[in-house]
Amino acid sequence: xxxxxxxxxxxxxxxxxxxxxxxxxxxxxxxxxxxxxxxxxxxxxxxxxxxxxxxxxxxxxxxxxxxxxxxxxxxxxxxxxxxxxxxxxxxxxxxxxxxxxxxxxxxxxxxxxxxxxxxxxxxxxxxxxxxxxxxxxxxxxxxxxxxxxxxxxxxxxxxxxxxxxxxxxxxxxxxxxxxxxxxxxxxxxxxxxxxxxxxxxxxxxxxxxxxxxxxxxxxxxxxxxxxxxxxxxxxxxxxxxxxxxxxxxxxxxxxxxxxxxxxxxxxxxxxxxxxxxxxxxxxxxxxxxxxxxxxxxxxxxxxxxxxxxxxxxxxxxxxxxxxxxxxxxxxxxxxxxxxxxxxxxxxxxxxxxxxxxxxxxxxxxxxxxxxxxxxxxxxxxxxxxxxxxxxxxxxx
Length: 396
Ligand code: GLC
What we know:
Elements: H1 2-14, E1 16-19, E2 22-25, E3 35-36, H2 37-47, H3 52-63, E4 75-76, H4 105-116, H5 119-139, E5 149-150, H6 165-168, H7 176-192, H8 197-204, E6 207-208, H9 210-229, H10 233-253, E7 255-256, E8 259-260, E9 262-264, E10 269-271, H11 280-283, H12 289-300, H13 334-346, H14 350-367, E11 372-373, E12 380-381
Antiparallel strand pairs: 1-2, 3-4, 5-6, 6-9, 7-8, 9-10, 11-12
Alpha-D-glucopyranose is lined by residues 27, 32, 36, 38-39, 157, 159.
């Protein structure tokens, strides 16, 4: 890991930017020259292994643009003039976007605390975390079903995933352009309804996604740990209870024949597109040991589904939407491997987890720090000098 660790440190330093008193990391200088929410959480996790002070700065700059209602935007432009080779959506606001992304912040903060036990940092960020998670628990769950809704596919972090084909009324095979147009139409509708989440979700995109809810469960447990450390015992109890409520609701509304499916619409119709999302509940330890074993043996280790030459493809090979080069429609993303790796360790599947770690490292060695990789050949695709590869440092 020696040389790899050095090259990750170099990449993180090269992608570091400053804006006034803030410091943040761009996911890729050419393609993604701004600050993104879940990316910054990944950066902070990577930085816990490199420079804890920088990990804290990454979080502080991410929290600096929180909206009055508690939402933390998924993009902060800092320097909007930065050239980019990736299409940028106009979200209707000058300095940030108006949607959010998977809420990994409490988990990242908790990991920082575990490294240096700096209570003053927890104290500094807690009110803003509280506000954000309360926003998600209320505004994103207006019917009190205990499932968090997203307004737009981009809020999942998997912009073009086939999980959103049915809600967007797209066939399993379609072009990037068609998908982009559908998402732009949604943004136009949202600008009109002023990004009022309950209204926008009910009228235009009513989706409860599996990964974001599993991520919420894990993060509420981290937030509960933070509250407890700070002596806010009622808050700690409240967040633990909310985490339990979400995992129960996931079992009630998403689970069928041992698999969790994202849902769509008022009737919670299951969207049966088999993607890596079926493994996301492992990360939050929502499954039983028996359920986890079955999931791993029947699906993860199945060469017809997810056990490719370079695991883990984001979409199962037997899905008609599977495309080994398609954006969120098949390739390997190292952050997804990281979620699955952590999930496997929760259940003691150390050997499978180690294989995923080795394969992730071999992808970086073979193809460099690319955004995503062809799961059949290992070819590097998408953005270059992409930071997420650094998460292999945290596969331990
Ligand atoms: C793409 C990805 C999203 C990520 C962003 C910046 O939009 O889909 O998950 O946050 O790039 O890396």
